[in-house]
Amino acid sequence: MATTVQTSAYQTDALIAEDIDAYLDQHRNKTMLRFITCGSVDDGKSTLIGRLLYDSKMIFEDQLAALEADSKRVGTQGGEIDFALLVDGLAAEREQGITIDVAYRFFSTEKRKFIVADTPGHEQYTRNMVTGASTADLAVILVDARKGVLTQTKRHSYLAHLIGIRNLVLAVNKMDLIGYDQARYEEIVAEYSAFAKSIGITAFTPMPISGFKGDNISIASNTMAWYSGPTLMEHLEAVDVDVDDDQAKPFRMSVQWVNRPNLDFRGFSGQIAAGTVKPGDAIRVLPGGKTSTISRITTLDGDLDEAVAGQSVTLSFADEIDCSRGNVIAASDAPPETADQFETTIVWMDDEPLIVGRSYWLKLGTQMVSATVREPKYQVNVNTMERLATKTLELNAIGVAEITTDRAIVFEAYAQDGAAPNKVLGGFILIDKITNATVAAGMIHFSLRRSQNVHWQATDIGREAHAGLKNQKQAVLWFTGLSGAGKSTIANEVEKQLNLMNRHTFLLDGDNIRHGLNKDLGFTEADRIENIRRVGEVAKLMADAGLIVLTAFISPFRAERDMVRAMLPAGEFIEIFVDTPLDVAEGRDVKGLYKKARAGDLKNFTGIDSPYEAPLNAEIRVNTVEMTPAEAAAFIVRQIMPLK
Amino acid sequence: MAKTLTHLERLEAEAIHILREVVAEADKPVMLYSVGKDSAVMLHLARKAFYPSPPPFPLLHVDTTWKFQEMYKLRDRMAAESGMELLVYQNPEAAERGINPFDHGALHTDMWKTEGLKQALNLHGFDAAFGGARRDEEKSRAKERIISFRTATHGWDPKNQRPELWNLYNARKSKGESIRVFPISNWTELDVWQYIQLNDVPIVPLYYAGVRPTVERDGMLLMVDDDRFRLEPGEVPIDRSIRFRTLGCYPLTGAVESTASTLSEIIQETLLTTTSERQGRAIDKDAGGAGMEKKKQEGYF
């Protein structure tokens, strides 16, 4: 083998063979560090990780034999051992020669177990790097000594800093290829230092290495005597871990699950996010703010005297106070804030771009709420750090935007100057309500005072009183369907019949509303959502006033119809699907709109160049091919007649 | 007073967090219990996660009818001790066709395990299944998420995985879709052994060395566990001191010659060994280097 394999500093075979119990004692008290490696495609990430595995003896002989064979067959090191092949997992990417997803690798020394996330350096994969960085205590930023600081280097550093990683290592790799040149190394460090300062990185640890040759990985390089700092492995073994620092913060635990095996035991299970807890500690349950004291910390191995950040425990209280999944148990004298509007940084992770105003699930800790994102204040160009104006966020875009949740949530600001970030109560994900995909990750900056100063004003005459006077029960009959399906015609017919039955009704028609309330809105996806949101709010006010409201809007997106449904009490939103095939609706073309759309004179027209998402569980469906408008109206009235 | 958590304490806390999170969000979870050491650790973690309640889900053993006798014994004992319901599923079609590891090779694993698992999940309508797979076992597993989303036909799409950030898990899915959950994804083989030792987790005695009847075939040392083992002409079982690093169907699982009779000795041997864990299993060798990735796309756990 032509490769110089330097002797590992971690020759523990002797101890393992001679005194296994002494070795195990040593390893029982190991701590854990999670880190990521990032760099451009050819900076040698996989080689570095392969080298760390190799040096810490995590490669077995059969894997080594396979590695030697693979290196000759598909390796990129001219037949010499290609450590990258150890790390590049999936078949497709092995052929392409690039890493395309986040892969986790493990190795350990006497002091620590390491979990390393191998994250790709390819432009379109910001998503993967942010994912890998979210659980990391440290980031190794790899630079090819021949190329110096590249655009990608800056991007990776920005992302690592954004996600709150405090320990950054600038690993100037491939020093063997520039003859271990100290001047070149220092030039790169100086250039990086200037950049780091410009984006707010206050400290980083530079080191000259060769992943291929093993210089300064686990043993000090004998070719770079001018470098007196630690080896990469020494540094990884010594840096602070976030979870230890979290213990110094006030106590917080998100409740995952209420443990109630019998009437004598009631415990609240969760993983401690910050601080420490012991029996007798005063706590507060948020939101709500009820207080009690901790009575027990229960585990299978016996009760604990104390538990600390990072542990999963079950806590019991001295008093019977309400507490359930989604609540946060916190130190009584230092509780976190509660709010429903925030400024946030959002990293978009889905192929479908952000739709402003659409309702997404937001998961923060164990809290799951509905949330909408406002138009972003700006998007960050991750290559130049410039702030750009934008109306949305596309895959891999990072922007700052305000978020509104449908109820108040318990939170803390994500970034903490100098301290470990508040990942549990400051980091969140957004989930698409239809596809259930995780579409974004976000970090809370602060709450907006707006929501705190506007309180709901209670009035004495409530919605039941309004409806009772009219001798009816309020409802919203939501007609949805393609343009030309017959929504307005049928809704008009239904209203006439209800009117004859002495019902107090009001018909909100799509075209009519666009003449007034919504005349500032166009037909883009975002405008259509805002159109429906406003109509939903108006319909809700009218329902509060005791009316039976009929609305006739194409309302093409399920998510927005569900958003209006969620505004109203259960049972009051009645979705009526006016089901007309596209060719039939287009054949009618009462307003000549389909013709214009086909000619390209009308953009974003539903059914032509904008989708219509048919209801999956509409309360009522009418087929206008089989029924006349009068028959459809009579059918609908029969369905809703139990309404008073 | 700061108490620094050890790596095993952190791995344990992470696994418990995952178990609870999925139980809170899934409609009908189940734990895949294969009776191996990883399953043993996972079961122990579940008992810790929900103590003093028993784990609020059943154990499912997808049985190939070809497991070691000692595995069936421990399986029944652990189900009784944990107070959990034990569901055993055997693919009726595989039984009817007499599918076995001697005549059918890869088809044996496909029908009994892959198909059997799908059938069992469909039969009971489970929407979340815990499994004891670890990322360090095999290359394609290193890239799988902790919560791995499966289509209604149980397929896995490695190119379309949900990003997993911080300790936030998205367990949402549509009707018919399901998730596979791997609470000990971040554990290594050594972590598993150390945890078993520190927590006195019961494991199948076959992991310890003992004198057992064996034959050597295709470079693998196989144990003659019952009289269904077909000896080839001239083959005579020989008593050897052996143990197993991994347990599956007995005619497909290679033993190693060993005298390690305590956990410390097993760990010692593991650390000094020169072959990696799955080497003893025939499954990874199918379809070249991409064997497991292919199986997973087809719905193998």
Provide a short characterization of the protein structure.
The complex is a heterodimer of chains A (644) and B (301). Chain A is of the alpha+beta class and 644 residues long. Helices cover 29% and strands 27% of the residues of chain A.
Largest sheet of chain B: 6 strands, mixed
**Secondary-structure-derived class of chain A:** alpha+beta
Which sequence of strands runs across the widest sheet of chain B? 3-2-1-4-6-5
The fraction of residues assigned to DSSP E strands of chain B is 5-15%
Instruction: Give the low-pLDDT segments of chain B.
Output: 282-290
Largest sheet entry of chain A: 6 strands, mixed
Order of helices and strands of chain B: HEHEHEHHHEEEHEEEEHH
Annotated CATH architecture of the largest domain in chain B: 3-Layer(aba) Sandwich
Q: Tell me the span between the first and last alpha carbons of chain A.
A: 88 Å
> Tell me, what's the shape of chain B?
globular
- Rg for CA atoms of chain A: 31 Å
How would you describe this protein?
The complex is a heterodimer of chains A (644) and B (301). Chain A folds into four domains: 13-240, Rossmann fold, CATH 3.40.50.300; 245-331, Translation factors (Elongation Factor Tu (Ef-tu), domain 3); 338-453, Elongation Factor Tu (Ef-tu), domain 3 (Beta Barrel), CATH 2.40.30; 463-640, 3-Layer(aba) Sandwich (Rossmann fold). Chain A contains 21 helices and 28 strands. In chain A, the strands form five sheets. Chain A has a six-stranded mixed β-sheet, sandwiched between helices. The relative contact order of chain A is 0.07. Residues 1-11 of chain A have low confidence and may be disordered. With 301 residues, chain B is an alpha/beta fold. Helices cover 34% and strands 14% of the residues of chain B. In chain B, the strands form two sheets. In chain B, strands 3-2-1-4-6-5 form a six-stranded mixed β-sheet. Chain B has a four-stranded antiparallel β-sheet with strand order 8-7-9-10, with no helix packed on it. In chain B, helix 1 (7-25) packs across helix 2 (37-50) and helix 7 (189-199) packs antiparallel against helix 8. Classes of the chains: A alpha+beta (644), B alpha/beta (301). Chains A and B meet through helix 1, helix 2, helix 4, strand 2 and strand 3 of A and helix 1, helix 2, helix 7 and helix 8 of B. Chain B: GO terms for molecular function: ATP binding; sulfate adenylyltransferase (ATP) activity. Chain B: One of its GO terms (biological process) is sulfate assimilation. Chain B: Its EC number is 2.7.7.4.
